[in-house]
Amino acid sequence: MAAPREQLGIVEAEGKSDRQGSSGVEVVLPSDLSTPAPMCPHGPTLLFVKVNQGKEETRRFYACSACRDRKDCNFFQWEDEKLSEARLAAREAHNRRCQPPLSRIQCVERYLRFIELPLSQRTFCQRCQQLLLPAEWEDHRGHQVVGDVSVTQLRRPSQLLYPLENKKTNAQYLFADRTCQFLIDLLCALGFRRALCVGTPRLHELIRLKASGDMKSNIKSLLLDIDFRYSQFYMEDSFCHYNMFNHHFFDGKAALEVCRTFLQEDKGEGVIMVTDPPFGGLVEPLAVTFKKLIAMWKEGQSQDNNPKELPIFWIFPYFFESRICQFFPSFCMLDYQVDYDNHALYKHGKTGRKQSPVRIFTNIPPSKIILPVEEGYRFCPLCQRYVSLENEHCEHCNSCTSKHGSTVAFATTVLFQIIPAKAQRMAALFVKKMFPEYIAIHKTARKQKQRKSNKMKMETTKGQSMNHTSVTRKKKRRERAHQYLCS
């Protein structure tokens, strides 16, 4: 996952905030646009508008779709701003300078030459994050270089490359092998033959690794990712340099056709999209992009009102459920906890500092998805789906309601939910929506307690006021008596 990550608490606040009537910056969806968006180094920009509670919309502006910090991409333009020809030319030149130094074709040619080299001449520069040909060794003298790069290392570039660490641009958190193996086994069990991996480089490489070593596995994979470094490890039919926030293929129509062909192969049968977007990214532009990929897939379908949907695994934190389902009503959330190798917090179960909040949203019926019992999941016969062991079936809701894998327990007057500390407010919103009768009882008891407390405060204040008045009157009488005696 290439992701502009923020701290979990900040992201969670974004995930549960209600867009209507709140203050902040909103993205204007493409259906509302009348003119094409200007380009930055990361492709077409997004149109934003700053909204303030109780006020009219302010001036709209364009900004980068991929970077949240203007230090990483300083593009900014008012929607109604008119630019001179000189400024437009300077912008185009800047966009070209920011592109990768090698074209996609050049990367493929270098890769083919590299794999023909003997093992002793296969080197990789860790400083430049680049495979080196013998003619380039002199230019990298003094750099930290890895030698004897094997075929296995070439097939697992996510272990050879350093993960990007800029949390506001494209920090990379890579699936743990446990999660990858679960996803691959699940895809095989469901009968998929192709996987479109959008921002999931480790899953892509393990699918290809399994296919090369296991004759029973015939799953093919295509990776779409914004990290151009992967272009030096893959042929054109297995990697496309891609921005998922604006559906932009950096290598133009050629890459677009690669994706189209992949989705429409076998008339669109046997393909699934697996995506792990940035948690700090807005759901709205992601949903627009995914709907464009769905439309591309549907172009290869028969036009007889086919109700079928492109199967999707959207991997995202559980507190974004309402916003994802707003755009994809057929999606449901699985209890499976997705964890990452290089993230201290996003760990499965109780072994990490915090249980992972990352889940799988899918339009595949959950009754068809088997979660591993040995990892703490069980089958609920009433819900007809696999859930966490701690997710007990609720008689009031007739479902397993826990979103985070912890126990939900009922009391006679109020609902108590044992949850991680940072999810307290989200749980309160969930309880308020799902169990209004318990909230009403709790509110009544709280109001009675507040009225009693206010009454006691008023009596105390009244007593203090009366005492103060009595003391003042006695003091004035003494002063008058003293004046009379002295006169």
UniProtKB/TrEMBL annotation:
Its main location: cytoplasm. GO terms for cellular component: cytoplasm; nucleolus. Residues 444-455, 471-480 have a biased composition (Basic residues). It is found in: Cytoplasm; Nucleus, Nucleolus. Residues 1-24, 444-487 are annotated as: Disordered. InterPro entries: DNA_methylase_N6_adenine_CS, Mlase_EEF1AKMT1/ZCCHC4, ZCCHC4, Znf_GRF. It comes from the Eukaryota. The keyword Methyltransferase applies. Keywords: Cytoplasm, Metal-binding, Methyltransferase, Nucleus, S-adenosyl-L-methionine, Transferase, Zinc, Zinc-finger. The keyword Zinc applies. Residues 461-470 have a biased composition (Polar residues). One of its GO terms (molecular function) is rRNA (adenine-N6-)-methyltransferase activity. Pfam families: N6-adenineMlase, Zn_ribbon_GRF. Residues 40-82 form the GRF-type domain. Belongs to the ZCCHC4 family. PANTHER family: RRNA N6-ADENOSINE-METHYLTRANSFERASE ZCCHC4 (PTHR13493:SF3), ZINC FINGER CCHC DOMAIN-CONTAINING (PTHR13493). rRNA N6-methyltransferase that specifically methylates the adenine in position 4220 of 28S rRNA. N6-methylation of adenine(4220) in 28S rRNA is required for translation. This is rRNA N(6)-adenosine-methyltransferase ZCCHC4. It comes from Galemys pyrenaicus.
